[in-house]
Amino acid sequence: MYNSKIIGLGHYVPENVVTNDDLSKVMDTNDAWIQERTGIKERRHVVRGDGDTTTTMGVKAAKIAIERAGIDKDDIDFIVFATLSPDYYFPGPGVLVQRDLGIKSVGALDVRNQCSGFVYAVSIADQYIKTGMYKNVLVIGSELHSHGLDMTTRGRGVSVIFGDGAGAAILTREEDTTKGILSTHLHSEGQHAEELSLIAPGMGNRWVTDIMEDNDPNDESYFPHMNGQFVFKNAVVRFSEVIVEGLEKNKLKATDIDLLVPHQANLRISQFIQKKFQLSDDQVFNNIMKYGNTTAASIPIALTEAWEEGKVKSGDVVVLAAFGSGFTWGSVIIKW
């Protein structure tokens, strides 16, 4: 048995910055309203026609992670790609990354666990490495939200939150089982699936021909729906539970955490968790203020920036935690 460890990180965000004041020009909102509720000041949006897609952003992040890992792309044995915004209905972006990076015909897996996607993807990569099946696994979280948001007053409750971007990590074998990823913890509660969802396009209850014929401009099923207060209440509970679960599994306490990197859903959630675990500002990394919620990309973007800023050091206990649509939630406990 092996552990797995992260040896390379990279991220990419579009150059186009969209501020709260920019949004106030297309919908009834303002900077104070958005910051008070979410902590977000700005986010990045792909500009139509500039060539960025969920896959290409993932590829750009992956190239940085591969270079920093000090490996060749052909050393990668497997690809795990987490996203809720794939380029195509099918195939998923995993195989597109394999093609665009020019990697040999390795396996490619797509993960559809939304805000928990990167945590789930890391858990999958970790298990493949621990069992000896693969040595080097490329894990990507990438999202292109902006093209699918309702950028009107009707959709402001959701649309002001989300941004575009990608993050990537290279995981490899670690023979010292006291280091690397110590454990991962995954959960779901599908009874609340519709509380944070995008119903269409979907094959569950409508034929494609019916959707094409309807062409109803008032059909809101094509835009994300979120019961904000309900999601918030569940998030703070599940975040806490899954962090405690991970700490107890490894006989650790909250005081042992050197850095918590939570999914960047809402700054108020992160602040609630920080207060609950009595962590200092230096022990929690947040960047939602400048990127918004980038769903599966948020943790790898934040982890990459934290590492670049010297906030992640050898021997540190690093905790990743996420909660989102599904509901799904999870945590990763790492001894860096």
Q: Can you offer a commentary on this structure?
A:
- With 336 residues, the chain is of the alpha/beta class.
- It has 2 domains: 3-174, Thiolase/Chalcone synthase (Peroxisomal Thiolase, Chain A, domain 1), CATH 3.40.47; 180-197 and 222-335, Thiolase/Chalcone synthase (Peroxisomal Thiolase, Chain A, domain 1).
- The chain has 11 helices and 13 strands.
- The strands form 4 sheets. The chain has a 5-stranded mixed beta sheet with strand order 1-7-6-4-5, sandwiched between helices. The protein has a 4-stranded mixed beta sheet with strand order 8-13-12-11, sandwiched between helices.
- The longest helix is centred in the C-terminal third of the chain and has 22 residues, at 228-249.
- The protein is globular and about 55 Å long.
- The two termini are 18 Å apart.
List the helices and strands and how they pair.
Blueprint: E1 3-12, E2 17-19, H1 20-23, H2 31-38, E3 42-44, H3 54-69, E4 78-82, H4 93-101, E5 107-111, H5 117-130, E6 137-143, H6 156-159, E7 165-174, E8 180-188, E9 196-197, H7 208-214, E10 225-226, H8 228-249, E11 259-262, H9 267-276, H10 288-291, H11 298-308, E12 317-324, E13 328-335
Parallel strand pairs: 4-5, 4-6, 11-12
Antiparallel strand pairs: 1-7, 2-3, 6-7, 8-13, 9-10, 12-13
Helix pairs in contact: 3-4, 8-9
Domain Beta-ketoacyl-[acyl-carrier-protein] synthase III N-terminal: 109-190
EC number: 2.3.1.180
Subcellular location: Cytoplasm
